[in-house]
Amino acid sequence: MEWDEVIRKGIREVDQVEIYEEKSRIVVVDVEKGEIKRAEASFSSGVGIRVLKDKQLGFAYGNTGAVERVLEKAIRGCKANREDPNLPGFTPESKPSSAEDLFDHRLDEIEPDEVFDLVGAMVEASRISDKVYSISASMEIASTQITVVNSEGLDLTEKRTTLSAGCYVSSRDGDKASTGSEIGEGRSLDSVDPEFIGRTAGERAIASLNSVQAETGEYPMVILPRASPKFLGFLVGSAASSDNLQHGRSFLTGKLGTAIGRYEISLVDDGLLAGRLGSRSFDDEGTPTRRTYVVRGGIFESAIYDRYTAHKEGRESTGNARRSYSSIPSVERNNVVLLADRLSGDDVMDVRRGILLISTGDSPNLANGEFSGLISEGFLIENGDVARGLRGTNFCLSLLDFLKNVEVVGKEVRDIAGVISPPIRVGKVRIAGS
After folding, report:
1. Residues 291, 429 share a domain
2. What is the pTM of this model?
3. Residue 163, in any domain of the structure
4. Which of 212, 228, 227, 216 is nearest to 379 (CA)?
5. CA dihedral for 223, 225, 230, 234, sign (positive or negative)
């Protein structure tokens, strides 16, 4: 059944109909401890349908081939739901923005054996010493087509590709053992260097063999881009989410228009950057993406919105709706970009004694902004150089003070999970051995 036929059928019983379709081809290769665990290509597709009638919303999802049943289920749900006066209509017909370089034909056509060769390059590059004894590596490539069509005349389709890779290395020297890792992500085959990923993971595993617990105290901390999603990404995607602010869940509630960072710092949500992981020409409601200053000159200037949360405040959506075919839209970030050129320098590591944070598995507390986490991978800094690895070491800082305490940022920018950032040095972070 064609989409216009589905819509015509739907509006016989409801006021508006929206169809969101997702088609994906995914190639995955996993190597664990030197053995192939998975090497496969798979296909998936699905459709989610929302309908509106008299401020009542219905939603259902299923296989694209069962779209009539999905529509019928959505209509039944709509009639059974309570009215919500905050519901806006679906996105009117509009011209999408133009986000470039989101699709790589080579990734769209790549086969598992080619991906296996790339994973093999990671593994070989990580063998930097006979102290390396176990290597795991993986790569996932996705080619996805998103379509948003509705009864208001909207009809948008976009193809996007992504590549993500990672390498995890274990090392041993007598009774000492340690690990090291690295990742890479992008939208094209050229955006990731497998040999760099493998070599860096191996080097970190060897360098961490003599790990120590840091002494409790306050240290300057250098946050590498790999950890930035837990800081900058959280600030924009969670703390500045209009949904969290409207429900009072965020520590930034009530702080619009106030200073939360140094005047040299701005944070931007930008869905239009060429080739970046968080870029797209339209969000998952069909709203054109754009550039939104969340923090400008240190001032918390704007939340990010989808159509529902924007309508509650009489605003326009900022193009931050995200969903899968099996869910309704919610507010999420696009790319997060740190702008701090006036703080940029070559001396980000120039401290007598400090902490280098590569990664943490923990996340901040949304309610109060406190971030207490374990340093999963990190090093001591001594006299400007990377010294011994860290084990059993925790850090604690407040995200309300985080941007105010940035001392300097580096010059080499990376894109990790759509957070585009250089290394960041923050002063006076509380550090404790566990």
Report:
1. no
2. 0.95
3. yes
4. 212
5. positive
